[in-house]
């Protein structure tokens, strides 16, 4: 059976405030896989538009962004009932105007709710109208660490008016604002409950998979996992008479994955079940679903080599890492996570790089069983689209921007577009860190005060043996952002080694600032993986030759 595997996005989509060209109808029996939305309803809309599942024009898109932005900053929701209804009407028309054939499957890798986005009601409205318009369309949402926070509060009754949320994960702003709408009766609990039962819960899965033409299997979960993690879940969640050797054959592991999904779906409505208790309890290493929603690639790298299955297996995941392929213990991990959903539409207008982490598999037949015959004939990587806008961030002052240099002073081996792209990704990473780490004021005094409070809190936790949390380094992040964006092709050769040396020093000097050191380590890795690194090495080699 011939398959045609492609990257989904063929146009430049990084100018995210502008829809690319005209609507394109999807082909029958196409399976779309999309990365984490991080509670960002506009990112979900954009995925649907790129897939051809929704058809809206620029004016409608602008209105959706305008409504989404109402709750971008405030802690509690400022949305009105009228705005929610306006949002819904645009979505209804967009789905009605789309020409969606049979056999379309949309798979989301999670973090759709209870994250840093605007308001979860908007994502729920989209899923609700999607289900109403296309009731036969297959949709899959993989359970994730942020979605678990929504689910846990929902199952525990904490989202009912007057009840208190249990915020087990941060950031969780989109859920907080949803609760504000319910408490103020802008959205009734009955309406919310109906959307959960008809649009969200039916699509929710524990894990997903597709068989491949070479006799192997691609396994999907929100977090990167391993065969050992699946084997442990089998031991914890299934009766012993249903246990199989998952390393022996694809049939065995596929059957176990099916059984785990059955236990998961059944457990959603059985308060006495192990799964229900796992979903409503706090994250912990003993929680049987924890590894499927929290595992990081670094944990897998540091773990002992796993027992290798007797068949080919790949893991596709969101949650962690960069979009693309990583090999760990001889197993391929295909990442769909991206920073796009972690940013706001205001930032999109000034970003030179955007990640739409999507892929699709297009079939030439309309009669296949999509659940088992969705196959991958060639290597499939998530798409990374690069724009060439010279302005990296609205927060960069005019005298700090990179300006085009004359040919006489530009380093011969440097591609200015690559430099701009690197600066833009670094800017988005640092902006996300600054926003998430408590920069409640725009003053240096305020930042220092917040850092001191966090440091004191960590000391108290340390006295009780608690794991130290991150000490915010917002002033350093702001300064680093300015420094990186001051680089040009003419000064890059001198500035970057100095910047890197300073960052390497900070990693050792700030043992308690783990989140910030992770950000700067990632920025250095971005550079090392970019053509800039090779260009710098080439320039240095040329000097040595001279």
TrEMBL record:
Pfam families: WipA_Phos. InterPro entries: Metallo-depent_PP-like, WipA_Phos. Residues 106-322 form the WipA-like phosphatase domain. GO terms for molecular function: phosphatase activity. SUPFAM superfamilies: Metallo-dependent phosphatases. It comes from the Bacteria. This is Dot/Icm secretion system substrate. It comes from Legionella quateirensis.
């Amino acid at each position: 059976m011939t398959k045609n595997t492609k990257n989904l996005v063929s146009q430049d989509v990084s100018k995210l405030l502008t829809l690319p060209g005209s609507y394109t109808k999807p082909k029958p029996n196409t399976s779309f896989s999309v990365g984490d939305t991080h509670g960002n309803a506009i990112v979900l809309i954009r995925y649907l538009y790129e897939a051809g599942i929704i058809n809206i024009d620029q004016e409608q898109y602008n209105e959706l962004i305008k409504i989404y932005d109402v709750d971008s900053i405030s802690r509690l929701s400022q949305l009105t009932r009228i705005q929610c209804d306006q949002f819904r009407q645009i979505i209804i028309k967009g789905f009605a105007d789309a020409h969606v054939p049979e056999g379309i499957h949309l798979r989301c890798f999670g973090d759709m709710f209870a994250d840093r986005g605007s308001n979860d009601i908007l994502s729920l409205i989209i899923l609700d109208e999607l289900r109403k318009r296309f009731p036969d369309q297959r949709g899959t949402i993989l359970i994730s660490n942020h979605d678990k926070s929504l689910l846990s509060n929902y199952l525990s009754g904490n989202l009912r008016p007057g009840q208190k949320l249990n915020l087990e994960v941060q950031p969780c702003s989109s859920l907080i604002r949803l609760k504000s709408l319910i408490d103020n009766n802008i959205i009734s609990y009955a309406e919310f409950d109906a959307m959960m039962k008809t649009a969200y819960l039916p699509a929710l899965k524990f894990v997903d998979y597709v068989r491949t033409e070479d006799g192997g299997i691609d396994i999907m979960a929100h977090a990167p996992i391993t065969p050992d993690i699946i084997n442990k879940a089998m031991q914890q969640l299934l009766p012993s008479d249903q246990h199989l050797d998952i390393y022996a054959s694809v049939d065995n592991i596929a059957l176990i994955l099916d059984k785990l999904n059955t236990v998961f779906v059944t457990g959603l409505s059985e308060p006495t079940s192990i799964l229900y208790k796992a979903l409503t309890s706090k994250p912990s290493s003993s929680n049987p679903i924890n590894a499927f929603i929290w595992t990081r690639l670094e944990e897998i790298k540091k773990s002992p080599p796993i027992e290798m299955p007797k068949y080919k297996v790949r893991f596709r995941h969101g949650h962690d890492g960069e979009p693309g392929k990583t090999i760990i213990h001889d197993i391929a991990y295909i990442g769909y996570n991206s920073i796009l959903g972690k940013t706001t539409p205001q930032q999109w207008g000034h970003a030179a790089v955007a990640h739409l982490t999507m892929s699709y598999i297009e079939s030439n037949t309309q009669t296949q069983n999509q659940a088992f015959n969705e196959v991958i004939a060639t290597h499939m990587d998530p798409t990374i689209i690069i724009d060439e806008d010279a302005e990296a961030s609205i927060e960069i002052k005019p005298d700090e921007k990179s300006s085009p240099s004359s040919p006489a002073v530009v380093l011969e081996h440097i591609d200015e577009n690559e430099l701009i792209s690197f600066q833009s990704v670094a800017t988005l990473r640092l902006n996300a860190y600054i926003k998430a780490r408590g920069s409640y004021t725009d003053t240096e005094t305020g930042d220092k005060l917040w850092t001191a409070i966090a440091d004191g809190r960590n000391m108290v936790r340390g006295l009780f043996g608690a794991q130290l949390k991150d000490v915010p380094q917002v002033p350093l992040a702001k300064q680093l952002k300015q420094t990186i964006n001051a680089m040009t092709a003419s000064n890059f050769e001198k500035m970057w080694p100095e910047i890197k040396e300073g960052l390497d020093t900070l990693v050792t000097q700030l043992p308690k600032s783990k989140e910030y050191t992770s950000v700067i380590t990632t920025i250095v890795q971005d550079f090392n993986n970019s053509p800039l690194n090779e260009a710098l090495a080439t320039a240095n080699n040329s000097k040595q030759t001279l």
